[in-house]
Structures are given as structure tokens and as C-alpha cells.
Amino acid sequence: MANVNIIQIENLSKAFGDLVILDNISLNVKAGENLVVFGRSGTGKSVLLKCIIGLLKPDNGNIYIKDKNIINLKPKEMNKIRKHTSFLFQGAALYDSMTVRENLAFHLTRNVKISADEVEQKILNTLDLVSLKEAVDKMPSELSGGMKKRIGLARSIITDPEIIFYDEPTTGLDPISSKEISELIRDLQKELNMTSMIVTHDLICANIISDRAIFLRDGKIAYKGTLQELKNSEDKFLIDFFSKEIVN
Amino acid sequence: MNLPHIINKRKKTNGEKTYNFFATVTGLSLFSWEFLKQLFIPPYEVTEIKKHMIELGMKTFPIVSITGFLIGFVLVMQSEPVFIRFGASDFLPGASALSIVRELAPIITALIFAGRVSSGIGAELGSMRVTEQIDAMEVSAINPFKYLVVTRVIATTMILPILSIYVVFLAIIGGYIALLFSQGMNFEYYKNAVVASLEFGDLIPSIAKTFVFGYIVGIVGSYKGYIADGGTEGVGLASTTAVVLASLIILLFDTVLVKISLFIWPM
User: Fold this and answer.
1) Which of A55, A80, A106 sits opposite B135 (nearest CB)?
2) How far is Cα A81 from Cα A163, in angstroms, rounded to an integer?
3) Residue in chain B lying closest to A152 (CA)
């Protein structure tokens, strides 16, 4: 694992009205690392990801992606950064009006100069990675929740991003599908050597994926370390959180 | 693009309603400005525009066909006794054609188009917004405004004048059929009376204003869908408010455009 910080967050704050979601957060993510972001619902995990990717504008602080401060970047400049990143949404966010092939081709053809034959080959190869080659001509409405997540994942990795953000990649899936998706994410990360930031509540997923974890609480990073360190912590809140997660 | 937030709750105070009114006016103006800014920036998404033109045109084609024919038919049926009462039945073909061309065909086509298309765009983009499909485009370095909004607004602006001209013809034929039933009127006589009554100054402003109406349908539907929030309820709200707002703005602009056209081309 390279020891270079690919994402650096300095004193990041975000509030919606009077409600402070992120309060002066600082964080570094190393290249090739899988960082899991834990926290109770509504603690700002997704907001953190959306600030990093530029979907939400922070109130204060700086965010550096590959040493470039993305705060106040013009859309054109931001899009240059986004060509190296990818985002898997909680609900996969597949385009309803497009087939699986079109969903994958849409991102690929608009970001990479590539021939039609290469596009087709890349789509089939990527679908093969997520074991859903047979779904290439299906519409999103014909796919199950697990299949949608896999296709969403395929769409996220088809452009060979350096950094990938996962917003609750296993939410709503049964434990077996959840484990399969998590293993897939881990295998893809190893194969493609991507940096990942994963927001999740799912301990099975975190166990499989994480190199390092942080825990958001009251808008701050309350705990950080390896998952094992967090689980072994004697802090009552963490003991409570992880024991409840295991029971659930 | 930072658009003013609209308060979406069931019971709003008068202050919140007033705020929403000004937020909508401001939001729609900023949205229109963004459209104008992005209109000339590549990529031009010609395939997407063509696709929307065909889809939206086909979607509205059956309803405007029926309505177009019936406008002319009913207008002549209703007007005939009045014209006879005033001893002016010879003027009926020309007068009805003038009403159809100058006002009825453009405004009724626009209102039907708003009902069918504005709500459809509002629901489609609203659904994409709440299911994060628009965000998915944005984070993938694709400009969702260009791809989703600009293409649809161009399509509605281009297709409504075509539909409106089609409705003019159908309504005039509807008028003839009504006169054929009631008076057994000769088509040649009807055609000559209609052509003699129409002038250049009647056709141009009526077609020109349908471009404006088409733009309003597209921009209002897109705006309402683009800012939708609050899940499925938000999508429904985007769809219904798009129709109401588009229809209202069309009627307001019609008043202004009629005044301007009468100033430029006095009768």
C-alpha cells in the first residue's frame, strides 16, 4: 500500500440550518486503502462522502483530492477530478430508461475516448467481474436489489477509477448477498488497486473490506483505528454499537 | 447552480407561501439563465434532442389531433347561429379561421402540451432526482443539466410549433365539416373564404408565440423535476405543480404576446 495521502480533509464543517452535521473534521485517506466510515443514522456519513465528491458544498474547511483543493473549483475543473473517482449510491442509482449495457456505456463513452468495439468488450468484461454478463440487455426494473448493486458496482468501476466511494453498499440486502457484494468489493479493490471509502452500518461488510475505520459521532470523528481496535475498545458507546450490530 | 429552496410541507403559513412564490420566480429565472448559458456549450446532444422531439410529439399527437378537429367543429357550430342572427353567415369561415389561427389553436395546443408533457418531464426528472440518478450523472463528470434539461427544453420549443400548425389545419377542417353538415357548404368556397381572410400578420405571431409556449412547458417541467425532493410525494408534487405553473405562465405570456403582436402587426 502506498503511503501517499490521496484524500486529505482539513477542518471540514457542514450544517443544514441550525443542525450541525459535520463539525471540524480532519481526515487523511492513503492511496490503495479501504477506509470504512461508521456511525449511527443521521450522523453525517453520507454528507461526508457527498462533500468530498462535490455534491454538497461544505461551510468550512478544505478537501484535497490528489493534492488538488476541490473547494470552489469550477465545474469543468471538478469534472477533471471526477474522471478519476466513482461513487456507488445506496440505491445503485441506475438510469431507469436505459438497459444495463446503456447504463455502463453511458459513463464510459462520455469519459474515455474509445471505439464502439472496445466499449462492448469493456462492458462484457466488467459485467463478468460482477458475474452478471447475462443481464446486459435487461432494464433496471427487471433486476433484483442485489443485481442492481452489482450493476451499480460494475458501472462504478468501468472507467477504472483511482478512488471509489461506496454509500452503504450492502443496505437492504440479505446476509448472503451482503457478504457476496462485500467480497466482490474487496476482490475488485485488490485487483484494480483502488482507494475506497465505504460508508456502512454492516459489520459483515466492514470485516471483509476495511483496512482502517473511523466512527462519526455528534459531527466529529469520535474514534479511529483498525476495525479490530474499534471492536476491542472499552468505550461503552462502541461496545454498545458493535454488540447491537452483531445481534442484528 | 444554487436554486432557492422551496418549502414542501402540507400546511404552509402565509409567510411560507409568499416565500415559496418568490423562491419559485427566482429559481425559475436562474434556471432559465442557466439554460441560456449552457445552450451554446458543447456537447450538443443532437441525438437526445431528436429522441425527445419524437417521443414528446408522439405522446401528444393523438390528443391534439382529436382536440384540434373538435375546436374547429365546435367553434363553427357555436358561432353559426350568432352569425346568422347578425346576417353575417358569409363571414363565418373567415372569422372562425382567424380565431383558430390567431388564438385558439396555439393556446389550446400549448395547454394540452403543458398538461401532457410538463407533468411528464416533472415526474421523470423528479424521479431521477429522488433516486439519485441526477447525482450519479454529476459525480461521473457528466453534466446532468445539459443532458437532461437543455435537450428537453429544446425539444419542447421545437415540437410545439409543429403541433400547433397541425392543429390549425385540423381545426379548419373541423370547421368545414361542421358547415358541411349544417349548410352543405362547398369545400372550394370554404377554402377560398379562409385563405382570403388570413394574412401574413395572422400566421407569424401565432406561430412565433408557440416557440415561447414550448419553451415554458419544457423549462417549468424540468425546473420542477430538477428541484424535487421528499421521495415519491415530491415526485407527484413536481408533476402536478409543473402543469399548473406552466399553464399559468403560458396564459400570462399569451396576454403579453397578443398585445405585442397587435402592436407590430395591427389588424
Assistant:
1) A55
2) 10
3) B136
